[in-house]
């Protein structure tokens, strides 16, 4: 039973040389699968912060207007000239979007491995997931337990592996506890559950009191609210109690990374160490893995000389750990999709809705608690 | 012939709990040397940027006033309340100053190793070098060629080993070329000569046109003047030609580290690489090893995710490379004191002059080309 259509819709993002973002739905062919390939009907694909850079290209979404082109929806928005300069590599190129998703295998090539997947729910991190159908190699599929609703497997790559990557990086670099910012996000909630399982002390930094409650309800022991007047003191206390010397920061801009380093240095020198004009010898590290705040990172260097701030990305991390470790991490995610690595979504939208200016305005905000799931085959 | 006095003068820096910096000359005992110790009459000790933190404690030197206490000179200056908070570890403690220096061995203990040094010129990095006499273990002495004037050996530790440490760090971390800021300093000039010897491409960033001329006269190939309107373009070109992906920054504050990372990223993506929203995969690193600009470090993150900024200090580097490597680096300095590792000074001052507000105002500026040498036994 091959229900593969000849063509299907796929979301595309294009930046014109004149500085306009165009989101369109393209009709693309759905190829006949090669021997080891399968055809997946994509049922659910999340909008992650890591998708938004490619999707929206830094456009000013308040300028977004809807129209149609060749009977298909078109969204246009203006890109600031300064932002445009960094996009020279993609001008005029129509790019598919969507890092990860899940769906049902509806057709397969002739190999046993491919045929065995027919009817199964699979997760894929193949890119171009904001598509109605994807043809991928059978080995790319993470096969979920029989009967798993695709929605449950939509986010089985980016967030779960990032949470696992943070704990793994902590161990590899000789730290024993973690600080995490934007900690009430889906990823942050996973990290709370994972650190409880792994017995790793975790300092969660959130931006609102109700987020603190949410994390405490999951069992989080250390939660610091950056909107509180006692934030800096709370952070120094929590970092001191946990001896955390590694932080992962999703915000990037502003002074948060600097405040974390200051708190770590304060904890490192709280003991009766002799005065050193160079600060403590304790190495303090902040990895910036997102850019919720696109402003500059401002470091007030009152934390000695034993410190580092740098970028962290999932893909180079996975390359670094190698294929065997990668496979074991992936299987761990599959086993924990309804527990440790479960995700929640505030809204499910169709491909057409993903191009609606009012909907774009919401998901572009990247507000914690507003997590969207695209259902590419929804009407 | 033991010409050791019972006591001698030593410069001391004290921060009072009320927030006043006091520079004084203390009369301290000159101990009888133990078996393996020598007594060194200190003839020359430089004022390095790395001494100023301990010496001046961030005081506002424009408030400095001179007086006397117990017939010895006293300089007092005000410390801002915000600065004072970071100094709690040294309140009320009278601290000796001066990382390094050179002098003549005028007395020794009974061991052969100690006795052999009598009359020799030695360099020491023993701290408390702004003293007329220092008693140290013979093994701490770097013995210079017979008849070397002490002035030539005064700066044989901090700057030469830092220059060697930068090149060594470059090799250990897999980079092949360097960027250096405040490059017209004594250290910067050493690095130019060292990189020529080692055939390492070096991009020098200076702040004035005449500094560019100075470095070019030493043979520097790449010099970028940050006061020039073409600076950013010049930097992108130089970084592109050298493929430098590691920088050592003496300034720390402001946007220079960010500009360097931007130039490195621009060079890394100048080829026909496919567009990536995460930037290039080339790791770009800036180490901040000084704080000429005490303002915040401002990073405008337009250089992807493969980057790091962090502190770098000589002492942990030397601990990391181990004693054998340390000994070989030190001998290399001794062999090159009049060539690769030679220093120049704009002025030689006595201990009393080091406490003169007008003199302090000059050396506190840390202006390139104004390098002071203290001669503790000058009248």
Greatest interface by residues involved: A-B, 39 and 39 residues
What is the first-to-last residue Cα distance of chain A? 23 Å
Number of helices of chain A: 12
**Cα radius of gyration of chain A in angstroms:** 22 Å
Main sheet of chain A, how many strands, which sense, barrel?
7 strands, mixed
- Helical proportion of chain A, percent range: 25-40%
Q: Judging from the principal axes of the Cα atoms, what is the shape of chain A?
A: globular
Structural class of chain A: alpha/beta
Q: What is the multimeric organization of the chains shown?
A: homodimer
Question: Main attributes?
Answer:
homodimer, 379 residues, alpha/beta, 7-stranded mixed beta sheet, 6-stranded parallel beta sheet, 30% strand, globular
């Amino acid at each position: 039973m091959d229900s593969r259509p000849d063509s299907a819709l796929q979301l595309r993002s294009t930046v014109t040389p004149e500085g306009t973002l165009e989101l369109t739905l393209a009709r693309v062919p759905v190829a006949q699968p090669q021997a080891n390939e399968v055809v997946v009907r994509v049922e659910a694909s999340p909008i992650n912060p890591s998708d938004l850079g490619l999707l929206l290209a830094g456009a000013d979404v308040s300028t977004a207007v809807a129209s149609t082109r060749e009977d298909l929806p078109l969204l246009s928005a203006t890109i600031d000239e300064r932002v445009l300069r960094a996009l020279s590599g993609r001008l005029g190129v129509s790019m598919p979007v969507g890092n990860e998703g899940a769906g049902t295998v509806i057709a397969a090539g002739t190999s046993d491995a491919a045929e065995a997947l027919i009817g199964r729910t699979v997760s894929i991190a193949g890119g171009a997931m904001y598509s109605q159908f994807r043809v991928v190699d059978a080995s790319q599929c993470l096969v979920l337990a029989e009967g798993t609703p695709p929605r449950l497997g939509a986010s089985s790559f980016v967030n779960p592996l990032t949470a696992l990557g943070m704990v793994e990086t902590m161990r590899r670099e000789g730290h024993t506890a973690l600080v995490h910012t934007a900690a009430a996000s889906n990823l942050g909630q996973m990290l709370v559950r994972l650190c409880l399982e792994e017995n790793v002390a975790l300092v969660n930094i959130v931006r609102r009191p109700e987020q603190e409650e949410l994390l405490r309800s999951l069992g989080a022991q250390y939660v610091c609210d950056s909107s509180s007047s006692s934030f800096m003191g709370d952070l120094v206390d929590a970092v001191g109690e946990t001896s955390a010397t590694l932080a992962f920061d999703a915000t990037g801009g502003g002074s948060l990374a600097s405040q974390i380093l200051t708190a770590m240095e304060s904890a490192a020198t709280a003991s009766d160490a002799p005065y050193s004009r160079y600060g403590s010898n304790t190495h303090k590290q902040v990895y910036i893995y997102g850019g919720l705040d696109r402003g500059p990172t401002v470091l007030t260097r009152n934390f000695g000389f034993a410190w580092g701030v740098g970028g962290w990305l999932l893909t180079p991390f996975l390359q670094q750990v190698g294929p065997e470790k990668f496979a074991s991490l992936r299987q761990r995610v599959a086993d924990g999709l309804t527990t440790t690595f479960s995700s929640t979504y505030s809204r499910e939208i169709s491909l057409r809705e993903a191009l609606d200016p009012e909907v774009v305005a919401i998901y572009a905000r990247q507000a914690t608690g507003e997590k969207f799931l695209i259902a590419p085959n929804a009407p």
